[in-house]
Each structure stands twice: as C-alpha cells, then as structure tokens.
Design brief:
- The N and C termini lie far apart (40 Å).
- It contains eight helices and seven strands, in the order H-H-H-E-H-E-H-E-H-E-H-E-H-E-E.
- The mean pLDDT is 96.
- Helix 2 packs antiparallel against helix 5.
- A seven-stranded mixed β-sheet has the order 3-2-1-4-5-7-6, with helices on both faces.
- By secondary structure, the protein is of the alpha/beta class.
- The chain is globular and about 45 Å long.
- Bound molecules: S-adenosylmethionine.
C-alpha cells in the first residue's frame, strides 16, 4: 500500500461524500490554468474544514494562505450570509486568481482577501479590531505557523477551533535534531499548545495524494 492506494481511498470518499460543486471545481481549474502549485487541501480535507466550521457554528473565520481560494470557498460556504471570512495571501498573482474564483462562487460579500505577508497584515487586522474568530485555518508558510497560532489564540472566541495544516511533514515531526526550520516550527507549535492553558489540542496524521502529513486541531477555552 502506498500513495496510489491513498489517492484511491481519497477518490472513493470524495465520490460518495463530497458532492460535486461547480464553484470548487472551477476554482481548481482556474488555479491549474494559471499555473498555481497544486498544494491546496484535498476534497475530503476541504469537506472536513467545512464540517468543522458548521460544527462550531462559525460566523467569523480567519485563514492564513489562500492560494487559489479552494479551502476559502469550502470554509466560506459553511457560514451564514452575514458571516465574515478574512483570508491572507502573500502572492499577488495567486490572490488575483483567488479573487476571481471567490467572486464566481458568489462569496465576494463574505470573503475579504488581504494580499501581503501575513505577519505584515496582522497588525492591520489588530488596528481594525478584527475578530474574535470562531475558526482559524493556518496553511501559509510553515515556518511561521507558531506565530500565526499565537496570534490566532489571542484573537479567538471561546470555543473556537484552530487548525494548522502540514505539521507532520512526511513523518519528520518527531525528529529532535532535523536542522530543518519548518520541522522545528511544527515542534515549537506542539510545545506551545502543550504549555498554553487556554488551548487543548491534538495532531492527526494523514495520508493521501500528497503523501504522509497531518494537521493539528486545537480548541480554545
Ligand atoms: C498550502 S498553500 C494554501 C492552500 C489553501 N489553503 C488551500 O488549501 O486551498 C500556502 C499559501 O500560503 C501562501 N503564503 C506563503 N507565505 C505566506 C505569508 N508569509 N503570508 C501569507 N501567505 C503566505 C502561499 O503563497 C500559498 O498560496
């Protein structure tokens, strides 16, 4: 059993449980046509984000890392029409592709895309008094995941869910001296969660079309 089987299982799950959605398919096609890297969440993972947002009744969501807007659309679709989702994307050309797909999905009024490095956008959000957020999805540059998590925990509503993607990194998370700053960042994230009394969390390993990885899920009290 290897990546082929993992992909087959993803496809099987998607074929039965992830309904065909024109806007999501169009967003994937637009990203592909524009040459964006195919590093968006898988359809079952997109559905998981959507379900989590519905489970917590999210009305306010923050996303780090928009890419072409695929996970953004999944999340925004989980909210009522007066819900608000802020998504942060560093790359101007990706942001342009995402803006078009979000608009085609009819979600312009729900989604606010802020283009620029997230660490530069966060003080602007702070100044605007953005939040508190009911769900935060952290999926941007992995080396800053702990910084984004710390900001999210400060700006989360009670009962909020914080999700950080790509924390297992091919099974290297447990390595103590990898010398790789992205792995060290994920280990720091785990240490932060372990020592922060405001949050409780866990990490689930995943396999799929993009290999062996996983996500951290934390609940804010
Ligand atoms: C894994 S992709 C996001 C995928 C998207 N969440 C999805 O599943 O459809 C990571 C994105 O983070 C963006 N990114 C990288 N560094 C960033 C930063 N400092 N601030 C904001 N976005 C950043 C990348 O340009 C890329 O589009």
């Amino acid at each position: 059993m290897g990546e082929d089987a993992w992909t087959e299982v993803d496809d099987y799950v998607a074929s039965l449980l992830v309904a065909h959605d024109e806007a999501l398919e169009a967003a994937l096609a637009a990203s592909r046509e524009a040459g964006l890297p195919e590093i968006q969440v898988s359809p079952p993972q997109g559905k998981l984000l959507h379900l989590l947002a519905r489970m917590v009744g999210a009305r306010s969501i923050l996303e780090f890392g928009t890419l072409g807007g695929y996970s953004t659309i999944w999340l925004a679709r989980a909210m009522p029409r007066d819900g608000r989702l802020i998504t942060l994307e560093a790359d101007a050309s990706y942001a342009e592709v995402a803006r078009r797909s979000i608009s085609l999905a009819g979600l312009e009024a729900v989604v606010s895309l802020r283009q620029g490095p997230a660490l530069e956008t966060l003080p602007e959000l702070e100044a605007e008094g953005a939040g508190p957020f009911d769900l935060v999805f952290i999926d941007a540059d992995k080396v800053h995941t702990p910084d984004y998590f710390a900001w999210a925990a400060e700006h989360a509503s009670p009962g909020a869910v914080l999700v950080a993607d790509n924390v297992v990194r091919g099974g290297t998370l447990a390595e103590t001296d990898s010398g790789d700053e992205t792995i060290e960042a994920q280990r720091r994230l785990h240490e932060m969660i372990a020592s922060d009394p405001r949050v409780t969390g866990t990490t689930i390993q995943t396999v799929g079309g993009k290999g062996h990885d996983g996500f951290t899920l934390a609940l804010v009290s």
